[in-house]
Amino acid sequence: MNDSATRNQRRLLTALALAATYMVAEFIGGLLTGSLALLADAGHMLSDVFALAMSATAIQIARLPPTPKRTYGYKRTEILAALGNGILLVCVALYIFFEAYERAHAPVPILGAPMLAIAVGGLVINIAGLWILSAGRAENLNVRGAWLHVMSDALGSVGAITAAGLIWAFGWTWADSLASVAIGILVIYSSWSLLREALDVLMEGAPAHIDVEEVRRAIAEHRAVLGVHDLHIWTVGSGMVSLSGHVVAGEGVENGPLLQEIGDLLIERFEIAHTTIQVEPENFEEFGYAHCD
What we know:
Elements: H1 3-33, H2 36-62, H3 77-105, H4 112-137, H5 141-170, H6 174-202, H7 212-220, E1 225-237, E2 240-249, H8 255-270, E3 274-280
Parallel strand pairs: 2-3
Antiparallel strand pairs: 1-2
Helix pairs in contact: 1-2, 1-4, 2-3, 2-5, 2-6, 3-5, 3-6, 4-5, 5-6
């Protein structure tokens, strides 16, 4: 496992330990105080525990070497974990909506002061988890999914704190259901970009930060290149972008130096290191070969 993967796994396991510990405390607190917002937050923290465990496991699986059947190895395990995290977030939000609806029609007494204390403790734990995971979220979609889980849970804690304050000060028990709905909306909002990005990777779409036409133009501007076709750019796993394409070269061009120069260009300008490029003569199609652009 490389240094980056090791650091990310350590961050995930540390955040997992924090979330699992406080999840139990928040669940018990929700039962004792009668707060749906706390129970919703505990349920969301349970999803955090699953998400963090899944993410940490995915990093371990992704390090497995390639096999004759899986030539890229298991790198997309992390993308599958990110997709699973997004789906889990949506399921948690739907459950929160259902419980809020039920509670609105059958309100129960809520102990505002204990609820407030427990919610503040949950926020502190979530902030610690966010700090632990923040360093890895920019480079790894899997870690970003776990970070989003913790972020939405932190926002949920803020909602629970607000509701607890209103209940304690004014006796507004309806604030508990309202805070729960707000938590659910935030959870769905935070999961949308994660789901979209994970699906883009699985559908082998071009990475969002790379303009395919700009890459095509950059290659075509090379003095020895007459044309570019069948250009494909996709993400294998977090941080691993691949490119394949066909380049039409002028007569007398040596393939070795041309490939080296194009490879250097792709690394320097677009940070694409994993490339497969086929060099073709200008009259290549006359020999019965065709491209699929």
